[in-house]
Amino acid sequence: MAQFVYRANLSAKTFPFLSENWGRSVIMPGPDNTYNFKVASPEDQDKDAGIPQIYYCHNVLPFGQGFQTIGYLPIVSPVPGKSFTTQFLLRDGADNKAYLGITTSGEWLINTGGLWLSKGTYGTQVTTAYVSGITYIWVSGVGCYKYDFGTSAFVSVTLTGLTIAGILGIAPSFGYLIAWTKNSVAWSSTIDPTDFTPSLTTGAGGGGVEGAKGSITFCLPHTLGFMVYTTSNVVVAMYSGNARYPFQFREIVNSGGCASQELISYDANTGNHYAYTTSGMQLISTQAGQTVFPELTDFISGQLFEDFDESTLTFSSAALTAAMAKKLTVVADRYIVLSYGISSLTHALVYDMIQKRWGKLKIPHVDCFEFQLTNPGVFEIPKQSLAFLQADGTIKIASFSLTASSASGCILLGKYQYVRARLLQLDQIDIENVHSSNFSLKVLTALDGKNGVFTTPTAGPGSVGLQRSYYTRAIGMNHSILCLGNFNLASLVLTFNVHGKR
To answer: Alpha-carbon torsion 194, 198, 204, 207, what sign?
Structure first.
C-alpha cells in the first residue's frame, strides 16, 4: 500500500472542554457536512470542521506556531499551618509595594519579596481601594485600615460620615473613595478620601442606585467611573466632572447579576469588565453586556468535571451536584484565566486574547493574579506575571521557559483517520522541538472510533537534536497522539497507509 505523509494541524483556536465532546475526524472529509457554509454557523466556522486537532490538554498554552508546556516557578515559600484564601497588592505614593495574604482565620500576612510575615488577625471579608497614594483596606463589619510601609504595621483609619455596620466594601474611582451597602452607595470628598459627610462644598454624597434590580453585591472601578454589580443586573456610574453631582447612574442593558467579586476581572487595563454573571460569561461595557465564550459558560455551568491522570493514562469524570468553584482573572492585558474545580480551584482555562486561542493549566490554587515585582526599579516581566497563590501560602508563576525542568504537561491530538470507509495503519510519528529528555509519546488507537487503547511506539534512529521519531504498526479506525512531559510542539508529521475495511 502507498504511504501518505501528513503534517497535523497545531493552530486550532479552540478545543472541547470535555474530551468526550470531540467527534470522529478525518483528513479527507469526502461528503462530510461538518463544514458547509449552508448549514454551519458563520460565527465559529473552525469549531468542529471534522479536522483532527487538539481535544485535550493541561499545563499547555498556545504560541504562534503550536503549543508548549508550562512549568511553575516558586517565588514565595509556604507558611506551615496557615490556610490562605486570597491576596491583595498594597502600594503607596512612593511606589512601595507589598502583598497582603488573608487566611481562613482572618490572619493578615505581609510579603515584600521574601517570606510571609504575620501582622495579626483583622478579618476575612476584605476589599481594597487605592486613592491619593494610599491603599485603604476595608473589613466588612470591622472598619478601615491602611498599611504603613515605614513602621510595617496596619493603622486604623476613620471614615467620617459612615456607619461601619452597614458598609460592605470600598472601591476607588477618579480620586473618590466609594463605599456601598446592600441598597446604596456613597462617595467621599475629593479633598479628603476619608470624609464621607455629605456636603456641596467638598462633593461628598451618595444615595440609592437608579436602575438597580437587586441588592448591591459590590462596586468595582472602571476607566469611566465605576460599576455597581447587583444580584440581577449591572449599573454604571459615569463620572461627570461636576463636583456637586460627580456620578450619573444608568442600567447596563443585557447585563446579568453577579454574586461574587471573584467572578469579575476588574483590575486589568482592558477598558471593560469580563464577568461570569447569571447570564453566563459576559463582556461588560458602559453601554451593554455582551455574551462571550458560550462554550465556556456551557462547560462551567454544566454538571460534569473531567481530568486526566498522566500516570495511569486514564480519563476520569465526576457528575456534580453543586456548582463548580470558579474565579475569573485577566493577566497582563492578554490572558483571560478562568480557574475552576469541584470544591476548590485545581484547573484553569486560559484564553490568549492576542492569538485568540485557548490553553489549559492544572495547578491547585486559591487565587490567580497578575504578579508585580515588589522591588522598585525592575519593571519588564510580561512572561512572568501569571501567578498562583496556593493554600499553604506558596506563590508560583507560570514559566514559559522551553528548557525549564519544572515544565511538564500533556496534549492529546486526533482523531486521525484518512477516509471514513477505511481503517488506518500508523507507521511513523515525527515530532519537532523537544528540548528535554522529559518527554514521552503514546498512541491511542480506537477500533470503533471512540474507545481506544494506549500503546507505546518505538523510538527510532531519526531522533536527532530537537527531532523525535517514533515507529509503530498500530491499526484502527482512528488514532490519537498523546505527548507527555516537556515539549514545544511546532510540527507533528504522521506517516501512514490506508488499511482495509472492518
So the answer is: positive
